[in-house]
Amino acid sequence: MISPAAAAAGALTAAASGALGTRTIVLLTLEDVDAATKLSPTYRPPGG
Predict the structure, then answer these.
(1) What average pLDDT does the structure give for the chain?
(2) Distance of CA 16 to CAs 6, 24, 29, Å?
(3) At CA 10, angle to CA 23 and CA 28, rounded to 5?
(4) Sign (positive/negative) of CA torsion 13, 14, 19, 25?
């Protein structure tokens, strides 16, 4: 199995050539989720 860094290097090289498109998915750590639960974002529903 290849390392995540090696996979990213291959994907970036292929994307830079224009042969492929890339899509990035951000994975959250447990610390990120804990920090998010402490935030109080405001939400306004559509039309509200």
Answers:
(1) 88
(2) 15, 15, 28
(3) 45
(4) negative
pTM: predicted TM-score of the whole model, two decimal places: 0.45
> CA 32, 3, 7 angle in degrees (round to 5)?
90
Q: How far apart are CA 43 and CA 24, in angstroms?
A: 26
List the Cα angle 32/34/37 in 5-degree steps.
110
User: What sections of the chain are H helices per DSSP?
Assistant: 4-17, 30-37
Give the separation between CA 9 and CA 15, rounded to whole angstroms.
10
> Residue 1 carries which side chain, given as an amino acid letter?
M
Q: Which of 20, 12, 29, 32 is nearest to 4 (CA)?
A: 12
In the chain, the largest separation of any two C-alpha atoms, in whole Å, equals 50
